[in-house]
Amino acid sequence: VSSGGVPYGDMPNFLKPRRDGVPLSDAAVEALLTGTEPPAEAAPMLQPVADVLNAMRAGPASDELAGEAEALAEFRRATGASPVGAVAAGVSAAGVSAAGAPTAAMSAVGAPAAGAPVGGAPAGGRRVHLRRRRAAGSRFGARAAVTGAVAAVCLAGLTTAAFAGMLPTPIQRLAHDVLGAPAASPGGSHPGAHGHVTQHHAPGGKTGAAVHPACTAYTQARAHGTAAQRTAAYSNLVKAAGGAGHIAGYCGHGLAASTTGSHRPHPGKKKGTPPSHGKPAKKKTPPGQSRGKHKGHSKAKTSAHGHGQPGKKQHGHGHSGKKNQGHGHGKGAHKNPARHRAITSRSQ
Amino acid sequence: VIGEGFARTLAAAQDGDETAFAVLWRDANPAMLRYLKVIAPGAAEDVAAETWVQVVRGLAAFRGDEGAWRAWLFTTARRRAVDAIRHSARHPQAPLEDLPPARHPVATDPAELALERLSTQAAVALLSRLPRLQAEVILLRVVAGLDTESVARLVDRGPGAVRVAAHRGLRTLAQILTTEGVTL
Fold this sequence. Notes:
- The complex is a heterodimer.
- By secondary structure, chain A is mostly helical.
- Helices cover 46% and strands 1% of the residues of chain A.
- Chain A has 14 helices and 2 strands.
- Chain A has helices at 26-34, 43-56, 68-79, 85-89, 103-108, 123-164, 169-178, 191-194, 213-224, 227-241, 247-251, 253-259, 295-303, 337-347, and strands at residues 197-198, 210-211.
- In chain A, strands 1-2 form a two-stranded antiparallel ribbon.
- By secondary structure, chain B is mainly α.
- Chain B is globular and about 50 Å long.
- Classes of the chains: A mainly alpha, B mainly alpha.
- The interface between A and B is large, with 69 and 71 residues.
């Protein structure tokens, strides 16, 4: 290329342009970085660089000290110290001499003597505190939500097990006292499986005695149930007692006497009227095996004796939680108060 | 740089002396902000505030001289800046509205403040044009006052790499100033 009479100096250097415009020795670099005088030969060339670096080393600008209040507040929060005089009150860039603070020390570190940002807390600092507070709040909220959910699930499971009578005897007793769950059977760890219902106030006046559920169910069906329910309850009772003739011995004489001729439709009860307390059972439930799912018999037997006896607890295996609570007392249970009183007195 | 009185000031701050802590804060916060404005532009104030929160929590357990103190400060600031950059990359945000005029910092001489800020801001803007490692090394050497070994530990590079980065950064800066005729 150079043989055509073109001088070497006119040929462009495409491969690698020389970068020797600014001589920069290691000593000059170190001098620039440490702020000392650069070598004499490089001083004129490096003066603009030195100016930039010196500007970076300049004393604090006012806005660079504006976050002092927030920092001191954080310091107080962390150390538990109380505000110190002018530092906490003024928080000015003019120093803290009012509180006897070392003004000389302030000037030594480049604090300006005047030109104070009055009460100027940076938005950044506030944002940080807000963010920290929000983060702490969300962490606490999430933790509380998880704890609440776990507690709710555990409580629901425990309640279900309690009303199913599936808990060990001591816990079942506790649930019986606290929640009104079925009482624990005297001999077993799963009271619900045995079908015995302990009532504080038995229907036939047998206060405190153990009454068979079939007897209770029949009593309640007789008082409040439909004809179908009474029939089902009676047949269950006959089965449980081992025959109609054994009902007296099975349930007690009071009930036996009342069963004679009492198996008839409830006076004043319209045929086909839905029971006021729960759905009728679709299938017959053997006495003593009613669980929460068998709503018909269970509800009938747990509801009747609550009328007019608010202080008496009625417990049975038919309790299945929320739906059975207050059974017979709720809205629509007895729309006619007079009839309600009549039924109550009859059942007693 | 506080100098000879640093050990006494630090001890007082560790004992809960608010005035001593103010001295430490006033000494380090401007430099930290300038460093953060280059490596975490747009979030420097937030990162600085978070850095001080962490420093205050660990202040009682700190042991070391002023060089170690500044190295700890800037290491903490750098970590917080990295966190902020990652967070902003994951959650891009629109800038908040500006402070109302009543809350703007007040200076006795606005012209002086403007000049002061202009020169510093121009220097920060110039350094921001450098590659990140070069700008960071220069800032840690110049603003934080750390030596080569401390900077190498802080940026997790070797001392040789730090020297090379500083050399290249200063050369690039000189070229920018020469070719563009930038004056402060």
